[in-house]
Write a structure and sequence with these properties.
alpha/beta, 11 helices, 12 strands, globular, binds nicotinamide-adenine-dinucleotide
Length: about 350
């Protein structure tokens, strides 16, 4: 039996997390869920967006499936998502973008993975106004040699293990000569240790354009924190949107799985959010737990429901959509038909 911490999150989180749990349970994998609150519901309950009950649970289970958590914009409490990644040193954020037949998108056959450094640079929280009048503000992005080395090595090892052919390092070393320069320098040094993998690098602005024009040229993309955040939303847009983009936050002994998307307050409470991103994050979690067969069956059921296009949410079928729960039930039914 696996023990897994479940953080339903806020906004659309609880509704999609419920669907993901139902789908994972249908696979027959024996999981004991420890359900804990973080984010807005935890403020109501504990006056703390990241209460010790949530941290203790993850410390014990070392695995979590997490719904999205709202972070107030411009002021208010700091991101709980970032705090979790830092607390557990989840340095590798792995965000695949995979085409699903039947999903409305500009491209077919996209299969790329963004490996984002998850603990350093502009997300480390080193920021302040320089004076009480708030006449200027500073955010300091620290990139370390060791932090760069471990994420770059992770990307190359990931490529090797998963039969990937190319790793593209994305940077802005022409302007950010120190932080970008260090990351690029380490990437070149690590890259030569993997002669079987093609090594490439791109400046981030060109990269954004290249991903829109010709995404098929990319395979594994490795980059620093902020660029990885932006490019992974872009990558989700290549395959049909945020509703299809899962992610894993991986550390040395702890991992947290979640959708790439946020709490989507604009559609919360309406039963219209696509549950697939968090279900696919659950698939990544099952693979991490060694439950390959269950992961494969869930992924196949999701792919079939999307391909048929009859029981999908409005982001995938705007003219005749079903709700979040109903799409989840269609995936469950498909798994049962397939003998799950
Ligand atoms: P968002 O990802 O929540 O939403 C962006 C757009 O995509 C919205 O139009 C939304 O309706 C749509 N969308 C997102 N998920 C969807 C789904 N499953 N199905 C259909 N449509 C979906 O981004 P945002 O609006 O910029 O951020 C909202 C909040 O989420 C912010 O507080 C932000 O800080 C937070 N956030 C959290 C995480 C996380 O928990 N890891 C990630 C990103 C943003």
């Amino acid at each position: 039996m696996h023990r897994v911490t479940l953080i339903p999150g806020d906004g659309i989180g609880p509704s999609i997390a419920d669907v993901a749990v139902r789908v994972i349970e249908t696979s027959g994998v024996d999981i004991s869920w420890e359900r804990v609150e973080a984010g807005l519901p935890a403020i109501d309950k504990y006056k703390d967006p990241l209460p010790s009950v949530a941290l203790d649970s993850i410390r014990n289970t070392r695995i979590a499936l997490k719904g999205p958590l709202t972070t107030p914009v411009g002021s208010g409490f700091r991101s709980v998502n970032v705090a979790l990644r830092q607390e557990f040193d989840l340095y590798a954020n792995v965000r695949p973008a995979l085409s699903f037949e039947g999903a409305p998108s500009r491209y077919k056959d996209i299969n790329l993975v963004i490996v984002r450094e998850n603990t350093e640079e502009f997300y480390a929280g080193i920021e302040h106004y320089i004076d009480p009048a708030r006449s200027a503000a500073e955010t300091i992005g620290v990139v370390t040699r060791s932090g760069s080395e471990r994420i770059l090595r992770y990307a190359y090892e990931y490529a090797k293990k998963n039969g990937r052919k190319k790793v593209t390092t994305v940077h802005k070393a022409n302007i950010l000569k120190y932080t970008g320069g260090l990351f690029l320098e380490v990437s070149k040094r690590v890259g030569v240790e993997y002669p079987e993998i093609t090594t490439d690098d791109k400046i981030v602005d060109n990269m954004a354009m290249q991903m829109v024009i010709n995404p098929h040229q990319f395979d594994v993309i490795v980059t620093t924190n902020l660029f990885g955040d932006i490019l992974s939303d872009l990558a989700s847009g290549l395959v049909g949107g945020l509703g299809l983009a899962p992610g894993a936050n991986i550390g040395y002994n702890t991992a947290i799985f979640e959708a790439v998307h946020g709490s989507a307050p604009d559609i919360a409470g309406k039963n219209i959010a696509n549950p697939c991103a968090i279900i696919l994050a659950g698939v990544m979690m099952l693979r991490h737990l060694g439950e390959q067969d269950a992961a494969h069956r869930i992924e196949r059921a999701v792919a079939e429901v999307i391909r048929e296009g009859k029981f999908v949410t409005r982001d995938l079928n705007p003219t005749n959509p079903v709700g979040t729960k109903e799409m989840g039930e269609a995936i469950v039914a498909k798994m049962k038909q397939g003998g799950a």
